[in-house]
Amino acid sequence: MGSAAMGTSEPLLILILGALIVAIDGQVLFRGSIGYLAEVYQPAHARQVAKLATVLFHLVMLGCVALVASINLEPDADIQPVLARVGILLLLTALGHGVTMAVLSRLREQQLSTLLAETQLAVQHRAVPRHPVRPGPGPTGQTNGHRDTPAPTGDAPSDDPGF
Question: Fewest beta carbons within 10 Å, which of 55, 77, 114, 150?
Answer without folding.
Answer: 77
